[in-house]
Task: structure prediction
Amino acid sequence: MNDTKKRIIAALLLASFTVFGLIACADSGKTQSGGAQETTVASNGSGDETEIRPDLPDVKFDGEEFGILISSNDELGIVKNDFEAFEMNGDVINDARFTRNAAIEEKYNVDIVDYPQPVGHNGAGLNAIRNSVTAADFAYDIAMMAGYDTCTLASTGYLQDLYSLNYLDLTKPYWDQKCNADLTIMGKMYFTTGDISTADNDATYAIMFNKLLVLDYGLPDYYEMVKNGTWTIDNFLASVVQVHADLDANGQYDTNDLYGALIWDDTVMGIINAAGQKCCTINAAGELELTLNTERTVNVLDKYFEVAFDNSIAHTYQRKNWDGVAAVRMFSNNQALFFMRLLVDVPSLRGMEADFGILPYPKYDEAQKEYYNTVGSWHSVFMCVPKVQENPDRTGILVEAIAYESMKTVTPAYYEIALKGKYTRDNESSDMLDIILATRCYDLGWYYQIGGYNEQVMNLLRNFKNDFTSMYKKLEKTALKQVEKLNEKFAEVTA
Result:
């Protein structure tokens, strides 16, 4: 750690812990998000409240470097770097990350260094980890990587089983318990997420809705529907079909008109997951199993496509000269009731004049017990540990410490101050965020691109052709072989 950073640590930590301490006290004992992030306290059984702390030794690491490889797919040209924070600059999330990094560096006498790779699905991060493990050069202690590349590394033996690392306790509330449940294969966990990252929150599917249009069209209270369990695919689509108009009266529906929904290609995967279905599931034996072709999947796609294929009602905005921000611009201009995308888009709407709210993806029916909100395969970022470690105990200690410190500083900054306080417009949206992040879904079928089904279900929308059953059957043999080979690979890796 350099001298400049040391000189400001005392004042920095005092100020930041005062701010975040107030937040923690306000939310004491509350479960927040999909990481099961109980904010900071839990009962110790004696009536007192004690802070949830990791069980870690009091050690120093003599100024050693803790290297973190950063690799993500493109999202509006931005690298999703959960560790980049060179100095305090007034941005609440940057300052929280800087505070966290400084606290860890001071406590353990280490130097946290991030190594961002070129943006995009170009294999730069994947090859960097492969080369490092093969050479045993210990270049990176951990990596924050996009899901596709992380999956490839896991299945080919380049990643450490996180359960095997001393001092890393994935049962703690600063690790995402939904993620652990969905991604554990044959009793092994190769990548996960939680408070250590905000990129997983950004990558979560959500639906924004325009409150002005709700009033204009006399539409129902969606917040109440979510809370009482009636926010279903049928009720969602019933609202979509009520809002549409050829605003410029040119006889064509284009970016100048009004729609019930702005539909992103990836919503097809989200709609399937929201119905409680997955492309692949981990079965009772701990193996990957193909589970996409169900009556429920067919039914929910039939309902969705009936509306999504109607260009006068739903605007599939990626089909015509999508520039990455066109849908944000249209929604901000009150040209759509619903905007189906990711939580990362919420800050882009801060300049919108009309009020908007946030909703989870709808359930299949009222009998479904909970909502499910996909963490996008392209957009995801997971924490993983290279197979070859110079000091695995040090890695376990520091990853656990960083995750815990993130729960105290970064999560409150992202969740309570930035996302809830700065960008959303009402208290109800905050409640919806709690629900969305507590019901996240991680689908290994999408992440491992089993049978190419991730692209093929989107192609149904892209081509306006609902032939799911024939598409599935055509690829089933290939998909089953791929699943079989993956299970064989994991059996070899875990042996």
